[in-house]
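ok so for the tutorial part 2 we go from a plain amino acid sequence to predicted structure tokens. step 1 is just haveing the sequence, like this:
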Amino acid sequence: MSLTDPFYDSAPAYSHSSTGVVELNSDTAVTLMATIKNTLLDAGWTIVGVERSTAEQWRYADNFQTVPATTAPVDKVPLDEPCDSPIHPMRHATLGFDDYLSYDEYRTIAPTCTGRVYYAAKPTTVLTAGSLMEAMMEANIFTVAMTEDGTRFLFHFTSTQPAWEFDLIPFQIGTGDLQMSGGYYLLRSQTTEDGGYLELKLQTQFVGHLGGGGTIVVGQGPLTPYLTLTSSGGGHFEQPVYPAAGVRYAMHANGYQFAIWPLAGTGRDASALFASMLKPDNNHRDSANAVLVVASETDNFIHWQQLNQNLHWEEAYGTGYSNDFDIVKFGSFQESTGFWKNPTFMWRGFRGTPLVNEGQVAFAEAPYVLLSADPNHQGPDRIGGRPWDMLLLSDGTHEDGSIRHDGHTWRYFSYSTKPGDLTGSLWILDEANE
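step 2 — the prediction. this is what the tokens look like for a chain of 434 residues:
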């Protein structure tokens, strides 16, 4: 029998692909998604799938103007005040800041206006609808396909650009404003020696909440970045990241993990997400890399969790191994059935007080993750491995700042607040590796 000290290697697990800590552009859902994607690409993740955003809307056929074709030459006349006249509400379409209006191409001169685009009305509603589609597609925002269903037309919009680049451009062809959504980039992490990897779907979703702050409802509400994580062995974890005015987000990524957290703010104005395929120790099972995902909230907003204020998690996490990745999704309310079934960082320290030497200097060591293959059933806990590019100090620091250790600069990330946890603070590598 060979025995292992879980702290046999107290050195940080360097990925050699760190981006350092970067600030994300969180002005809008689209800019936030774009900078998350670019940061992951800088860390060595690759794009393995792309889907374009889409939208659908009905419009009744009799809302399209029809005009009879001429049988003889006609002297065309200009429209009366084409750029300032009232807009017929039933024949109105919009794209961005432009209104789309029909005109009689057989008898009137095509107007040219700022903020108004005129398209030709035709002898039938089908032809007029086609004329509108052609005019709107000239903006190169989306392509449009039409399905006829009795007295109605169903219009299918597909973005001309990958994923969500045009999702914030409003438009309408029927009743009510539309935005495209659902497009995504699928990114894959670097592959471990055992062949394990993470995949992250970056997409926009309409995300709302019941009762002004309760259960998350996907499909209604404002357009919101929505992240879905899976591992090479299956499982999935979902989490919105809310863009909000004045909230600044930071991100760190490397080839095997990433962390997103707010530099200020709490609640739904400040989401956080950490995901890692941990660096295993030398005695791990083949093809069984440990996976840890920790989010910032539960689905129903009751058991609020701040990633940056805990080193032991009870809600809103996913955990397991890459061949049996099990999820405690936000809002699942699955209870732990045994002591320490929820994942936690392990390190040397005291409960409730810093562990320091005679010079009042805290110990610096690599955090290890203790987890169970299934936190909701009886079963042995295991040391899953070390998160990449992270350092744990045996003190209670909880202020933003930087330190130097092992010849590198580290940025403050989190600290322990739960009663019974060891006192400690978590730091993340703030240097970019080539």
